[in-house]
Structure formats: structure tokens, C-alpha cells
Amino acid sequence: xxxxxxxxxxxxxxxxxxxxxxxxxxxxxxxxxxxxxxxxxxxxxxxxxxxxxxxxxxxxxxxxxxxxxxxxxxxxxxxxxxxxxxxxxxxxxxxxxxxxxxxxxxxxxxxxxxxxxxxxxxxxxxxxxxxxxxxxxxxxxxxxxxxxxxxxxxxxxxxxxxxxxxxxxxxxxxxxxxxxxxxxxxxxxxxxxxxxxxxxxxxxxxxxxxxxxxxxxxxxxxxxxxxxxxxxxxxxxxxxxxxxxxxxxxxxxxxxxxxxxxxxxxxxxxxxxxxxxxxxxxxxxxxxxxxxxxxxxxxxxxxxxxxxxxxxxxxxxxxxxxxxxxxxxxxxxxxxxxxxxxxxxx
Length: 346
Ligand SMILES: Cc1cc2nc3c(=O)[nH]c(=O)nc-3n(C[C@H](O)[C@H](O)[C@H](O)COP(=O)(O)O)c2cc1C
Hints:
Elements: H1 6-25, E1 31-33, H2 42-50, E2 56-58, H3 64-77, E3 83-87, H4 93-102, E4 107-111, H5 117-125, E5 129-133, H6 137-145, E6 150-154, E7 160-161, H7 167-178, E8 184-187, H8 193-201, E9 206-209, H9 223-231, E10 237-239, E11 252-255, H10 258-275, H11 281-290, H12 295-300, H13 325-345
Parallel strand pairs: 1-9, 2-3, 3-4, 4-5, 5-6, 6-8, 8-9
Antiparallel strand pairs: 7-11, 10-11
Helix pairs in contact: 1-13, 2-3, 3-4, 4-5, 8-13, 10-11
Bound molecules: flavin mononucleotide.
């Protein structure tokens, strides 16, 4: 052991801390690329897996043939393992699970709510490992009882759809109990290796990052979408504003733009029409929900960064340049190793 130089000992120590998560994923590093709709397609996913991390395809609203095509295209670009993220309310959820199984995908991540027991069973019986999002300790326990092989806990610092609790608190509530039972991956606001190290030391099996990978050179996001990330600071990535508790809005963390400001005016106008008796409560709720339909695609693919949705986490301030996925992974690992080596030296 002492034959290794301090940097080598630190790298070996980090590898030990990541061993459980890496073995579960089948990757070199216990770093998952969080699935991002429209962003996490074949290019970013394969680049992350080729770099030793674990890419995850975002199925989003794809239908089964489209998902099969995306998996095959990803397999053509990498021989390394990757996962597929399925949204639980997708009307063809079981058919999508079957597509993953037919293609030999080893890991299915269920997102967007508690997955139906039948979908979990189907995935497991077909030989895939099941990963679920646990928003609270009681649900974490329930998910593991239902067959989840691993959990992701995602704090409100994250980009995209968010829960109300920060990762700082979720990690303290969930890791001490659940990390004994299954590998737990932590997500939300992670932008540097030192943070990865600290969560591993708290008992996390690994981490999941999304925002940090949007400006990977391999990522197909529109140059204007990437530019918005490069310019933004942590405080620019804010949750959706809800005007009236009678009309709940789904909380999404995104960069402020004309769209987020227009959404506030839109809610006010709809609420006025409801109060004037022009709209029923249900119709008003639907009009509010409809506002963001198709808006992530508009920003990511078409580059409409003013009206589209710029989903981003608070770690966006740590995204400072476009760089290859392998360089981002090397930087994260390097920061964690340097932090461990510095302790030894001090
Ligand atoms: C643009 C964008 C789109 C996302 N889309 C999805 C999605 O389709 N499904 C999902 O489970 N999570 C989605 N997420 C969340 C990520 O998978 C990941 O958990 C999150 O980005 C981690 O937090 P971070 O952004 O602070 O790194 C999205 C995040 C972003 C930034």
C-alpha cells in the first residue's frame, strides 16, 4: 500500500468508496449521467459510458419503436453499459420495459412517480436491475419492498422536475438507513468532485449529475441552450412560480427567461377568467398546465432560449465551458482524488 505515491493511494481510496456503486452499474466510476429529456440521447449517453461513467437514455414521451431505435443507436456507439429512464405515467410503460429487455438493457430507471408493481416485476423477471427515485424515507422503504434494486435521491437543487427537499437534508434522512439495504445514488446540485467524495463518505454508492453534462461537446443540445448554461449563475436556476394554491403547478427548476415571466402573467390571466366565471376550475387548471407543453424541446433542439424551458440545476454556475464528456469525468474524479490526497498530506 505504502509503495503507492499519495496520489495513487488517494485514487485507490476513491475507487474503494465507489466500488459498490460501480459494481452495481457495471461502470468504472459510480457516476450516473441523469437522464434529461431531449438531451440524453445516443451521443451524450454513449460518450458518458465510454468515459467510464454510466449514461442513461431519457425515454420521455418516445413510443416503443422510437425507444428501440435509440437504444440500438446507442449500442452502436458504445459497448459499455448504459441505462434507460422511463417516466411512470407513460401510457405504454410495460411495452417500453419490454423494449429495454429485448435490447438487453441492464438497468431501468423509473422516474416521475412511484412505478406500478407490474412494471417493476416485468423488468426484474426479464433480468434488468430496477432503479427508482425515492423522495422520502417512507417511500424509499416501500420501493425497496416492491423490488427496487437501487435508489436515487434527488434534492431540490436539481434541474428539471423537483421535490421540495434539498439533497443536504434527504441524504441525512435516507442514507443512514437505506444505504445498508441497497445502493443509493445522490443527485441535485453536484458540480465538483469534492462534493462527490463527501456524499460517498456519508454512505452513498454513487452520484447522479445532469446539469454538469449539458455542455459536454458530444451533447446535441442547441448551441444557444449551451450558451445559456455557460452564462448562468446558481441563482438564475429557480423553481416555477405558483400564483394561487387552488391551481397547483408542477415545480420545475429552470433558468429564468421570457417564458418563466410569461407563465406568471398566463396564470394571472387564467385565474381572472376563472374568477369571472368564464372557465371551470378544471379548464383553468388544464390551461395552466398546457403552457409548458413542448417547451423543453423548443429550447434544447430549436434553441428558443427565450420562450422555451431552460431546465437547469443550481450547479449551472459550475458549468464554465464546453468540453468533452471524458474531460468532465476526469475533472470530477481528479477533484475528489486531490481532496483525499490533500488530507493525507495535511
Ligand atoms: C434539462 C433537464 C432535463 C431533465 N429531464 C429529466 C427526465 O426526463 N427524467 C428524469 O428522471 N430526470 C430528468 N432530469 C433530472 C436529471 O436526470 C438529474 O437527476 C438532475 O439533473 C440532477 O441534478 P443536477 O442537474 O443538479 O445535476 C432533467 C434535468 C435537466 C437539467
